[in-house]
């Protein structure tokens, strides 16, 4: 059976398109079948792909991996397709921070070579499953790799919520929203909102209020097997559930959102087996001057 790769591209930039065509050509020359999404195919030269598929649950079926060219948003989009097919996603950063990427643009040729040879590192990343309930009925059932956010639907309003952990209430407050993040997502939206950085090996969930009107509104780090629930005031306002910036759901007052560790992880490809600490320092350009290293025995 011929080896196949699904190529997912941020098509909004000409540089990305030219890069995608270069990558596709290298993969095809190496004997691989290159598959692209129907919504992206018109932007890519026809000789650069072997087949076109719909961006649905079967888009990555039968492939070895999903190769994503772009920033974290593109990689998150690719991760949804890869997760459904049970294959890894290999992101090459053509954006800014690109924390989810397994390689940077300078390493593009090496990344393609690794795919051709089938030699690369794969990390399993924890996900979360999210369910919204109202009066015993499911309104939405979804998942996230980075985070699920429950936010107010209108800028001028306050969202009144109660945070619950393992069927016990923790705190009630008015806020702009609440984030439930994975360790992977701790360097994304949650980081910008003032949450802690959690190493990927730590199996935990982060609960982070956003602009809460309360004395106690600190980030919470709870166990992987905890059940986190957010209850929106039934006499309050509508809310919006957003997962990874990709999947959005309008929610009515009185809704209950439950978040648990996901049953299906996302597999991320790394070109090099670089420690997370080194990636953190490099991506955020953290100052490490004066570091002397471990003491010699």
Automatic annotation (TrEMBL):
InterPro entries under this entry?
ATP-NAD_kinase_N (IPR017438), ATP-NAD_kinase_PpnK-typ_C (IPR017437), NAD/diacylglycerol_kinase_sf (IPR016064), NADK (IPR002504)
- SUPFAM superfamilies per the UniProt record, alphabetical: NAD kinase/diacylglycerol kinase-like
GO-annotated molecular function: ATP binding; metal ion binding; NAD binding; NAD+ kinase activity
Which top EC class applies here? transferase
Q: What are its E.C. numbers?
A: 2.7.1.23
Q: Which UniProt keywords apply?
A: ATP-binding, Cytoplasm, Kinase, NAD, NADP, Nucleotide-binding, Transferase
Q: Which positions are annotated as binding NAD(+)? A: 72-73, 77, 146-147, 157, 176, 187-192, 246
Subcellular compartments: Cytoplasm
Q: Which reaction does it catalyse?
A: NAD(+) + ATP = ADP + NADP(+) + H(+)
Q: What is its main location?
A: cytoplasm
Q: What cofactors does the UniProt entry give for this protein?
A: a divalent metal cation
Cellular component terms, GO, for this chain's entry?
Answer: cytoplasm
Q: Which GO terms describe its biological process?
A: NAD+ metabolic process; NADP+ biosynthetic process
Judging by the UniProt lineage, the source's domain of life is Bacteria
| Catalytic center residues | 72 (proton acceptor)
Family, as annotated: Belongs to the NAD kinase family.
Q: Spell out the NCBIfam families in the cross-references.
A: PRK03372.1 (NF002892)
Briefly state the protein's biological role: Involved in the regulation of the intracellular balance of NAD and NADP, and is a key enzyme in the biosynthesis of NADP. Catalyzes specifically the phosphorylation on 2'-hydroxyl of the adenosine moiety of NAD to yield NADP.
Name-wise, this protein is NAD kinase
């Amino acid at each position: 059976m011929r080896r196949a790769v699904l190529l997912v591209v941020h098509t909004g930039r000409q540089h990305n398109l030219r890069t995608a065509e270069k990558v596709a050509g290298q993969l095809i020359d190496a004997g691989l079948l290159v598959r692209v999404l129907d919504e992206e195919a018109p932007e890519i030269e026809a000789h650069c792909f072997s087949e076109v598929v719909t961006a649905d649950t079967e888009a990555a079926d039968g492939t070895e991996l999903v190769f994503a060219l772009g920033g974290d948003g593109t990689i998150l989009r690719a991760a949804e397709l890869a997760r459904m097919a049970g294959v890894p996603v290999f992101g090459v950063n053509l954006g800014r921070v690109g924390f989810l990427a397994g390689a940077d643009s300078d390493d593009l040729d090496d990344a393609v070579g690794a795919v051709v040879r089938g030699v690369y590192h794969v990390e399993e990343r924890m996900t979360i499953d999210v369910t919204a309930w109202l009066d015993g009925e499911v309104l939405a059932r979804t998942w996230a790799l980075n985070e699920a956010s429950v936010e107010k639907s209108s800028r001028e309003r306050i969202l009144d919520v109660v945070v619950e952990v393992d069927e016990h209430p923790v705190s009630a407050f008015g806020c702009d929203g609440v984030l439930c993040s994975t360790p992977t997502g701790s360097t994304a939206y949650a980081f910008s909102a003032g949450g802690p950085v959690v190493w990927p090996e730590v199996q935990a969930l982060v609960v982070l209020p956003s602009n809460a009107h309360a004395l106690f509104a600190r980030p919470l780090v709870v166990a992987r097997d905890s059940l986190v629930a957010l209850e929106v005031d039934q006499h309050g306002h509508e809310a919006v559930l957003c997962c990874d910036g990709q999947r959005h759901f309008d929610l009515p007052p009185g809704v209950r959102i439950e978040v648990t560790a996901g049953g299906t992880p996302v597999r991320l490809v790394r070109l090099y087996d670089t420690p997370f600490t080194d990636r953190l320092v490099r991506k955020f350009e953290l100052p490490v001057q004066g570091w002397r290293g471990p003491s010699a025995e």
